[in-house]
Amino acid sequence: MSHPMTSQDGVEHPSASSPEDRPYLPAMGNPRLLRFYDAFTRLVGVRSAQWQLVAQAGIAPGHTVLEIGAGTGTVLLLAKRAVGSATVIGLDPDVQALAFARRRAVHDGLQLRLDHGYADRLPYPDGSVDRVLSALMFHHLPGAEKVAALREAHRVLNPGGSLHLVDLDGEQPGVIGRLMHRRHEHNDQAPRGDQSPADRPAALRGPETASAADVVRLMREAGFDEACAVGRRRTAAGVVRFYRAERDNPQPGTRST
Ligand SMILES: C[S@@+](CC[C@H](N)C(=O)[O-])C[C@H]1O[C@@H](n2cnc3c(N)ncnc32)[C@H](O)[C@@H]1O
Fold first, then answer.
1. 115 lines ligand 1 (CB under 6 A)
2. Quick check: CB of 68 below 6 Å from ligand 1?
3. What is the CATH number of domain 5-16+24-173+208-246?
C-alpha cells in the first residue's frame, strides 16, 4: 500500500504535494443535502440493498475490502461489523462525506481506513485487495469514467478476488430517481459561471444510470472474465441491480475465498 498523508479529520490523501481535485457528483447531488443522506437511504429502502451487497461479497477473515465511492460509510461499517478482522477501506472524492464516515466509525468503535480519491485512479497497488464493493456510486460516474473505474477495480483485485456492485437500474427508475434526473436537467439550464451546459464537465451534468446489459458489457471490457447480474430489488428510489465480476485466477486451487 502507498503511504498517504492523513489530515486532521482522519481522512488520508494520496499525496500532500499533488492533491487531485476535480468535479464529481456528490451523494444527493448537492453537498448541502449530505447530512440528510443516511436518513434518506433508510427511508427509501436502500439500507437493505447495502446489506445485501455486503452479504453477497462473502468477506472472509483477514480480507482486504475496498469500497469505491464509500460516501458516509454505511457499507464500510456493515462490512467491518460482519467480519471484524477484515481491513476495510473506503475511498471517495467527497472529504465531507468521509469525515461523516470517520465520526460514525469512531462512535461505533470500528476501525476503517478512509482515503480521498477517485474510482478511476485508485491509490492502491496491483493485486492488493480481495473484494471491491461499489454501492449506488456507478451512476455518479460520467460515461468514460465508468469503464476506467472498472479497469482500476480489476487492477487492484488479487487473482481470484471479486467486484460486487449495486446500482440503480437505468431502465427502471423509481419516482425519486426520475425526480433526481429532472432536477439535474433543470440545473443544466441555469448558467453556472461562464460555462454553457455543453462545455460543463460531464461530472456536473447529473446522474448517468446504465442498463444491466451495459454494466455487464463494461465489466467484461474492463478485463473481468466472469461478470453477471446476480439479483434485483425494488426500492422507492427505483429498482436496484446487483452485479458480480471475478478477476481470473490463473492457478486453480489458489482462489481467494
Ligand atoms: C449515492 S452515494 C453512495 C455512498 C455509499 N456507497 C452508500 O451506499 O451510502 C455516491 C458516492 O459516490 C461518490 N462519487 C462521485 N464521483 C465519484 C468518483 N469519481 N469516484 C469515487 N466516488 C465518487 C460521491 O461522492 C458519493 O459519496
1. no
2. yes
3. 3.40.50.150
